[in-house]
Amino acid sequence: MTYVDGFIAAVPTARKEDFLRHARIAAEVFKENGALQIVECWEDDVSEGTLTSFPRAVQKQNDESVVFSWITWPSREIRNEAMKKAMSDPRMSNEKNPMPFDGKRMIYGGFEVISQS
Predict the structure, then answer these.
(1) Is the CB of residue 11 less than 8 Å from the CB of residue 103?
(2) In this structure, which topology does domain 3-112 adopt according to CATH?
(3) Is the pLDDT of residue 28 over 90?
């Protein structure tokens, strides 16, 4: 069964192109290491909830946009090996490919796919 890594982050709106450049490099590395699909989504219809919401979860500021992303892998085992390789790849270094957002406010996790239509 496939495995999915999900991510939500607040990215400075003015740095959308920097984010896309960062994401393209990361996608190349992840695909080389077994990822089936990488999807990056920029907020379009994301409201601020009163109790919970994407903006609240990432402590979004007025000059930021929410990004929702995921990577699909063939399995958790392939993902685990791929992440080790990807994190040691020079293209993923902070010097070569700095994150254009505050990584401390990024939410991420791995998910086992239990249903797919």
Answers:
(1) no
(2) Alpha-Beta Plaits (3.30.70)
(3) yes
